[in-house]
Amino acid sequence: RKEVEQDPGPFNVPEGATVAFNCTYSNSASQSFFWYRQDCRKEPKLLMSVYSSGNEDGRFTAQLNRASQYISLLIRDSKLSDSATYLCVVNERNQFYFGTGTSLTVIP
Amino acid sequence: DVKVTQSSRYLVKRTGEKVFLECVQDMDHENMFWYRQDPGLGLRLIYFSYDVKMKEKGDIPEGYSVSREKKERFSLILESASTNQTSMYLCASSSLGLAGTQFFGPGTRLTVL
């Protein structure tokens, strides 16, 4: 069983739409959680950390549900520049486990 | 501006060659990692290091070794390259602690012929 699982998509949404990604993790002892963004042929870059209380950064909202062991990312008012692959990442004792990523394409 | 650099963006080698991939970070991070990324498989951890001269195997260490002689530098070595090691190799570093996020280098696309 994979440590971190994501729906690979692809998600194709029109500009201005709201889109949500979910991710589940298997180890209840996981300690910290992140969403990374990866553009085509580029390295992953941190989008945001995820906290139990939920956190928001502009159009992006991340949530963590420890009881159900899932993490979510909500993108509101999608822009063309949001097109990328979004990676769910879980940290256990300084090791990072990556989901395979969810592909998003925002269509004009 | 924080930085992780990798010695090559593209590399072409022949089967059986010894290959060195170098990674340098300027953030004084304790942890450094080597991953490979393949379509449909995501990032897979090859080795990581949490201190100078320390190393730990990741999920797929076979056919690879690493070296960390200085804190800022972490090298990945393919002792005898094979075609199934054709991949994108990504180096990352992070600080210790729960909040330590990873910063990635630009990656090396290795092709083994």
| General shape of chain B | globular
How much is the radius of gyration of chain B in Å?
13 Å
- Give the overall average pLDDT of chain A: 92
Distance between the termini of chain B: 37 Å
Rg of chain A, alpha carbons = 13 Å
> How many DSSP H or I helices of chain A?
0
Low-pLDDT residue spans of chain B? none
Mean pLDDT of chain B: 93
Order of helices and strands of chain A: EEEEEEEEEEE
Helix count of chain B equals 0
The rough form of chain A would be described as: globular
**Strand percent estimate of chain B:** over 45%
Write down how many β-strands of chain A occur, each being a DSSP E stretch of 2 or more residues.
Answer: 11
Our measurement of the CA-to-CA distance between the termini of chain A, rounded to an integer number of angstroms, reads 38 Å
| Helical proportion of chain A, percent range | under 10%
What oligomeric assembly is this protein in?
A: heterodimer
- Tell me which protein chains meet in the greatest interface and how many residues each side has: A-B, 20 and 25 residues
Helix content of chain B: under 10%
